[in-house]
Amino acid sequence: MDTEQAEAYRAILQQQLEDLLREAGKTVSGMTDEHENFPDPTDRASMESDRNFELRIRDRERRLIAKIRAALERIDEGTFGICESCEEEIGAARLRARPVTTLCIDCKTEQERQERIG
Ligand SMILES: [Zn+2]
Can you tell me which residues bind Zn(2+) (predicted)? Predict the structure, then answer.
């Protein structure tokens, strides 16, 4: 991958990172004023399951943020777009759809197959 392409991915990744951090910030501030009056136990239960949902989302966001940061590091190192398993270049279509990926489609398919067996 040439520098120009790598920098285009850097811009995409940084935008995704900013969006995620902004969303995560919203979730956190939404959670600080949750102590409103919900005397009805049903309301409280649904509020708690909403909160579990938020925590799961935030966990997913955290993992994605870590992946984006790792991808940005790979751009700095010049290893971005190289499959970490077979060291072949990852297809452009796959990278465009999922710039944080570290595996080419063949290795990803193989990994998923192994996971199903295991
Ligand atoms: Zn591969």
Answer: 83, 86, 104, 107
Q: From ligand 1's centre to the CA of 106, what distance in Å?
A: 6
- Averaged pLDDT of the chain: 87
Q: Is pLDDT of 65 > 90?
A: yes
Nearest residue to 17 (alpha-carbon basis) of 56, 72, 60: 72
> 83 labelled as ligand-binding?
yes
The response to whether 107 counts as a known ligand-binding position is yes
Q: Does domain 1-78 have CATH number 3.40.50.2300?
A: no
Q: Which residues of the chain does CATH 1.20.120.910 include?
A: 1-78
